[in-house]
Amino acid sequence: xxxxxxxxxxxxxxxxxxxxxxxxxxxxxPGLLPAASLRDExxxxxxLLCLLTDxxxxxxxxxxxxxxxxxxxxxxxxxxxxxxxxARGIAVGNTPGVLVETTADASFALLLAAARRLVEADHxxxxxxxxxxxxxxxxxxxxxxxxxxxxxIVGLGEVGQAVARRAxxxxxxxLAWNRSARxxxxxxxxxxDDLLADSDFVSINxxxxxxxxxxxxxxxxxxxxxxxxxxxxxxxxxVDEVALAEALSHDRLxxxxxxxxxxxxxxDDHPLLSLPNVVTTPHIGSATLxxxxxxxxxxxLNMLAALGNEKMPNCVNP
Length: 318
Ligand code: DGY
Hints:
Layout: E1 3-6, E2 23-26, H1 35-41, E3 45-50, H2 58-63, E4 69-72, H3 82-87, E5 91-93, H4 100-115, H5 118-126, H6 129-133, E6 150-154, H7 158-169, E7 173-177, E8 187-189, H8 192-198, E9 201-204, H9 218-223, E10 229-232, H10 241-249, E11 255-258, E12 278-280, H11 289-307
Parallel strand pairs: 1-2, 1-3, 3-4, 4-5, 6-7, 6-9, 7-8, 9-10, 10-11, 11-12
The structure holds (2R)-2,3-dihydroxypropanoic acid.
């Protein structure tokens, strides 16, 4: 039977079918599979079922010429060199669709939390400052109205559209920019620079790729309103983090809600982590148990199809 490496214990049902079709080796931890162990454990494996934390680059593919298929439990595949995999005839699968609503909820949660300074206020209460300072004033913890404001969505794919549906409930005007044409009721398509200049809230929902790396750079951040809020649940590499920290610390931007960073886990001394106007979460946009079970099932079904010499139901190779 072909050998398959699974880089983490997975939830869901479908994973339990795999041992009937392959010699399955699951990394049991503790923690995430280190890169050096991934290289070793992959020896002789034809299949790899991985997470977005596993880096599958050209060098790894070069040292494992026997690898035939990769199923990632993620919709994003920027951790995999898909071009190099395709050139070697390796099928790559992902898990689109099932995390759309969950991730849009996370975008909105960060948007509201950043707008209304929820984390800062929570720390204030828990730190005893409310009681000690007996503080309350008309300007006390004032934030920014969401209802009736303008939301700019960068990337009007499935998650972007789900964010737009939530925005409609808040009576927001919705602008969007997308690399290809889109026609979504209630959403006005605009140029990216115009979106940044006209929005009170900007939600990043575009995939990370060569064309979107550093898309929101210092110049583009400079176009945003001084009291605007930026939310990113897509990928860290889309926003220039140094420029973002500069803008946030010099009152050129009101706040940010960030679920993703260029380097994850984000280092403790990252400049964005010292700013009170940043609300952050550890890449948990799709983290509900129900969604994670669906993602794991999709990844396992991709792997099962590949093991049966069939096309993966969700294959990203061009
Ligand atoms: C993905 O699947 O790419 C998401 O980032 C997970 O939250």
